[in-house]
Q: What sequence folds into this?
């Protein structure tokens, strides 16, 4: 069965962790250590590469550019200024374009391109030599140095933006800042510019207050690329029902993250030091059954299977040791379909979760070629 992954920060692994994603996964896992910048986990923990995605039948992914400014009072961030965050994220975007020029990937910036790509994957018997589709998103908006600069990002192929990541961005409060901190003054103009262009808003990693405020301003399409349910797993990184419902009511899709800290039923206090999961619970205690609890919760909340999906945060969540017990590579994402089927989900509903929901969303909300002409 085809899969669309709603969150894979691939370029971070390439530029910060020195991984060549055109390699077979086994080669990445056993290669001599590369030049690691800004912290990482060992290559042996990697779950994905482009060849492995083809084996997994991952036809497309929402891939990210991620560059955050380190601010006083918060440990997260890679850069001192927004200028440097801009340069880093432009470099990450260039990496995706290079993969496209090599035939390894196809950047899907329009609904027509997305539809044609999915048609090709659906009709092919063998995906070994096919490009993997990439929709480009930004996780945390520090790389947008001033709101009107989003026009440049749009013209460069960016289609999805979340205003924050960890800590406080230039535009809003994010994860590990609590749930009450809201938008900062520049956010309104950025959201209006995004609306004007047709950009998609990602509510992931954003504080509750910020999401509620941005949905009052932003009138366009919204998604949650990698966001689990607070009613299932406590903790501010997961979202409450009212925000999940707001995304559903806009016709959005909620991708469930493979990060075990977002699945473990004991929850986590995200405000301080975040330990490695294995310091708190054995890996085998968080399974795909626990993961599918979040998918099922979204389906029950929506009353339909048309808003739940996979949002792996693939390799951004800590790699293999911080994924559900049954996951060794992205090829194991196929097991999600088996769990859903065992729970009584019909074939069409399973396909919705695995790829159709993301496909319908992007075919509806990416710009048309006529829009860009």
A:
């Amino acid at each position: 069965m085809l899969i669309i992954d709603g969150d894979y920060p691939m370029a971070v692994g390439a530029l910060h962790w020195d991984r060549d994603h055109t390699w077979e996964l086994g080669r990445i896992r056993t290669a001599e250590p590369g030049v690691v910048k800004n912290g990482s986990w060992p290559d042996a923990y990697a779950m994905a590469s482009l060849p492995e995605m083809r084996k997994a039948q991952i036809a497309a992914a929402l891939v990210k550019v991620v560059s955050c400014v380190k601010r006083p009072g918060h440990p997260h961030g890679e850069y001192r200024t927004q200028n440097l965050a801009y340069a880093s994220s432009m470099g990450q975007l260039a990496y995706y374009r290079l993969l496209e020029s090599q035939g390894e990937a196809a950047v899907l910036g329009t609904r027509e391109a997305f539809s044609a790509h999915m048609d090709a994957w659906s009709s092919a018997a063998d995906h070994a030599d096919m490009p993997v589709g990439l929709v480009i998103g930004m996780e945390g908006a520090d790389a947008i140095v001033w709101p009107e600069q989003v026009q440049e990002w749009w013209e460069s192929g960016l289609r999805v933006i979340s205003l924050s990541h960890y800590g406080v961005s230039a535009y809003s409060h994010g994860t590990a800042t609590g749930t009450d901190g809201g938008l900062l003054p520049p956010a309104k103009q950025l959201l209006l510019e995004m609306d004007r262009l047709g950009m998609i808003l990602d509510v992931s990693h954003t504080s509750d207050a910020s999401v509620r405020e941005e949905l009052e301003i932003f009138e366009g399409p919204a998604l949650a690329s990698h966001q689990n349910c607070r009613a299932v797993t406590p903790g501010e990184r997961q979202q409450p029902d009212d925000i999940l419902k707001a995304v559903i009511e806009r016709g959005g899709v909620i991708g469930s993250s493979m990060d075990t800290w977002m699945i473990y039923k004991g929850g986590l206090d995200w405000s301080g030091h975040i330990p490695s999961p294995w310091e708190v619970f054995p890996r085998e205690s968080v399974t795909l059954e626990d993961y599918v609890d979040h998918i099922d919760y979204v389906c029950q909340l929506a009353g339909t299977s048309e808003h739940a999906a996979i949002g792996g945060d693939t390799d951004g969540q800590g790699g293999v040791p911080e994924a559900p017990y049954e996951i060794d590579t992205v090829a194991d994402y196929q097991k999600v379909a088996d769990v859903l089927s065992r729970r009584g989900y019909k074939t069409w509903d399973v396909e919705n979760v695995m790829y159709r929901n993301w496909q319908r969303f992007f075919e509806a909300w990416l710009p048309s070629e006529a829009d860009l002409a």
Observations:
- Residues 131 and 301 are 35 Å apart (CA to CA).
- The mean pLDDT is 96.
